[in-house]
Amino acid sequence: MIRFSLGCEHDHEFEGWFRNNDDFETQKKRGFVECPACGSHKVEKALMAPAVSTGRKKEKVALAMNAQQQAAMAQLKALSEKMRENADYVGDKFAEEARKIHFGEADARGIYGEATPDEARGLAEDGVEFLPIPVFPDDRN
C-alpha cells in the first residue's frame, strides 16, 4: 500500500492509501476519490517525502496489533473472502445491478463490485440494502 498526501481545489489536505499509483489514477477517474472535508472530486497528489518499506518496518506493524486485534483482523478478512466467494463480481456495474435486483428486474443473488459515493447515496435513497466490504492489500477480484 502507498500513502499519498492529497489536496482538493479548496486547499483541504488529507491522506489516502492506494495499492499503487495506477490504483489512485483509476479511482480518481471513476470519482471514488473525494475530499473528506468538502466532498470535492477535484483532488490532486501533493508533494511528499518518500517512505521506504523494509522487512523490519513490516515486522513492527505486525507487532503493533495485540493477539485479539490480529484475530479480529483475520476473521474480518475471512468474512470478506467468504462474501466474495458466494457472490458474483459485477465490477463498476454494481449500482445498476443492485437496483435491478432490488426492483425485481433481475434474479436475486449476492453481488459485489465498485460504486461511486454518488451511486452509493442513490442506492441508499432508493432503499437498496448494501454494505461496503473491506479491501485488503492482497485482495483480488
SSE layout and pairings?
Layout (H helix, E strand, L loop, with lengths): L1 E7 L4 E6 L2 H9 L13 E3 L9 H10 L2 H19 L2 E4 L2 H9 L8 E3 L3 H9 L16
Parallel strand pairs: 4-5
Antiparallel strand pairs: 1-2, 1-3
Largest beta sheet: strand ordering: 2-1-3
Name the assembly state: single chain
Radius of gyration: 18 Å
The portion of residues forming beta strands comes to 15-25%
Number of helices: 5
The low-pLDDT segments are: none
How do the SSEs run, as a string of H and E? EEHEHHEHEH
Number of strands: 5
Instruction: Calculate the mean pLDDT score and round it.
Output: 83
Categorize the overall geometry.
Answer: globular
Biggest sheet architecture: 3 strands, antiparallel
SS-based structural class? Answer: alpha+beta
Give the % helix: 25-40%
Provide a quick synopsis of the model.
This protein is an alpha+beta fold.
Written account of the structure:
This protein has 141 residues and is of the alpha+beta class. The chain contains 5 helices and 5 strands. Strands 2-1-3 form a 3-stranded antiparallel beta sheet. Strands 4-5 form a two-stranded parallel sheet.
